[in-house]
Structures are given as structure tokens and as C-alpha cells.
Amino acid sequence: MKDYRQRIADVVLADKLSGKGAVLIEGPKWCGKTTTAEQIAKSILYMADQDSLKRNLQIADFKPSRLLEGATPRLLDEWQIAPKLWDAVRFAVDHMPGFGHFILTGSTVPDERRDEIQHSGTGRISRMKMRPMSLWESGESSGTVSLSDLFSQKEFEGGDSSLSFEKLAFLVCRGGWPSVVGMEGKIALDQSYDYIESVTESDISKPDGVSRDPDSARRIMHSYARLQGTQAAYTVIRDDIAQHESDSFNEDTIVSYVGALKKIFVVEDMKAWCPNLRCKTPVRTSDTRYFIDPSIATASMGVSPSALMDDLPTFGLMFETLVVRDLRTYAELIDGKLYHYLDKSGLECDIVVHLRDGSYGLIEVKLGGDALIEKGAASLLAVADRIDITRMKKPSFMMVLVADGDFAYQRKDGVIVCPIGCLKP
Question: What is the percentage of the chain residues whose pLDDT exceeds 90?
Fold first, then answer.
């Protein structure tokens, strides 16, 4: 197994535990939630352990506080198997001095409408989301360009990347799953197909107990993959499936399946950014479609690294999903969130990294090459020109983030051109 850097989630978890009684770590299965929590926990309850599952469920139903007994921080792994644990933790936190008592991990969004859950946990339980590993965490990015430094107004010094175009195609298809880092070739690529098999055959029916057809799930995921990086409405997904697949689905079915995929953290769409503009151009507010990891999209479509190399438009869409995954992870450390900008005139910015203090950076994602870089830079400058800087800050930086390139540099117009293989938090 390849050595890799400390997970960013390790730092975020420690920070959150210092200010809340409990922390809920959410994210897709297999992304490392339990491992992250185990490193800091002093005692552990594994709810999914079949040897003790029946007994623990009975205790949770009769007296859930018994399951909270143990040295703290106490890890309650896959807590949602016994939903009553949520209110038990919330009550315990109210009556325990200090912070950092419990860590909960879950692969399904807690359903606050369940009878067993009476309280949202506001003020007691902090939430954090984990995703598959970024290129910096897995050791594939050099880390010579820091996202944090881009917001600090330091002079840009550039950076080097040794990540080849061919290697990046492999990493897009391999994904950032911790258990796969270090694997090569077919063995590595097979893992994402196994992941989809688990999602479609079992996991997609777990959030709400509704039985869903595996073949239908695969077809909907295939369409979602084709529409990565777009603001496709459910009706567009419906029409896309009708055009490419033998079956057709009504809109309600698609809403149900996609909703389940969101609850198990397979899908993570991006909200629209609505800045103060100097002009009156209306801004589109539809979410942009993304899987939480690009390997889910490539496996859903059945495309290999060599197929991506032969189909650059598809490669571009899958690369954008990888960029979104990494930037979401890096932004966690600086209280940042990712958004997308698109107005009714068609002017677009792929990613806006917006910080809690109102600072923001504008990013266009391109595979590379002079023509695409020039197009991306022109779009960034046009978006920046429309922003009313009397009512909000100037962008901290503008960047064309590329797949193909050996070094990062700043153009005369101020736009940074940076390979993804340079970036770190």
C-alpha cells in the first residue's frame, strides 16, 4: 500500500471536536470515515458488527444510554442502524461538561422525520463531510500551489507538477478511495465497478427502505454520468435515458432514485452562486450535477483511461468532477464552499470558491492547450468585470485549472494557469 499524506478530515475532525460535544462524520461508504474516527477515539461501538448487532439493537430500543458508556471521545460507527442513539447523544452532551465526547459516523443522511429522532442536534452535534481522497492526500499532487495562499494575497511564485496526462486519466478512473491508492492497472480500476454493484444492488434501497431496481439504478447513474457538470433538469435526465437506453422512466422515478443516491453520498451536486452584479443579467440558479468521485461516473459509463484519452470531451467532464472533489476537500480547511456561476447570457464560471469572510476565487476548468486556456481566461475576466465591487470584494484570484501541464504560472492579465498536479489545501 502506498504511503500518503495526512487526511484533511483528520484536521477538520480535531478542530470540530474542540468546540462541540459530538461530531457526525458523513460520507460515502469506503471513503475512510471509520479509520479517521478510530485514530482519535478512546472507545468504540461498531453497530454493524454482526456478532453484537441484535443485542445492541435491543439495548438501543430499551436504554440507548448504555451504548454510550465508555472512554471519550467514543465512536459510534454506523449509528443510523439504531436511530435512537442520536437523541441519546444529544441528551448526554447536554449533561456532560466540556467538548469532544462522541464521534458518530454514517453512510446515510440522518432522517430527522423518523419517529426515533426527536431533535436535530443543533448546537450539540457538528456535521462534517468526508469524501474520497484528493490528489494531494494520496501523494499524486506535488502541493507546490496552495489554495490557502491564493486567498492570502501573497505574490504568486508558481509551482511544478510531474503528473502526466496519461496518469491523470488513470487517476480519474481509479478514484480517491483509500483502499485503492497504491493499486495499479485492472485491479485498481475494478474497484469502482464493485462499488457501483454494491450501490445499485443494495445501498440505494437503504435510506428510506424503498425497494429500487438495480438495473434502473444503473441506467439512471449512466445518464447522470453523461450529464456531469451540467445543470440538467430531471426532465432532461428522463429524455437522455429515453434516447440512450431501452427503458424509459417518469420524472418521479428519477427524483426518487437520485434522491436516494444523494442520501448515501454518491451524488453531490453544486449550488449556484449569485453575486452582486453591475448589470441586470439574471443568474441561473439550478444545481450542477456531480458524483462525489469521478470514478463513479467513469465506471457508470464503462469508460477506461485509454477511452478517456480517445474522447477528450468526455475526459474534460470527468476531469471537472475530480477537480470539484479535490477543491471541496481543500476548501474545508479555510471555511470555504464551492459554487457554480451561469447567467442567462451564457457567461459561466465553472467553480467559485467562496469563503465565510466573503472572499472568493474564480476558477475555470480546462484540459489544457493554449486555445482552451485563452478561452478560460477570457471567461474569468468577463465574469469578474460584471461583479459590482462596490457591494462585494474583488476576486482574490482567477485561475484556469488544467489537466495537462508541467508548471503553474501567472499571465500578464493576472489569471493563474495551474495544473491540478500542483494544488494542495
Answer: 90
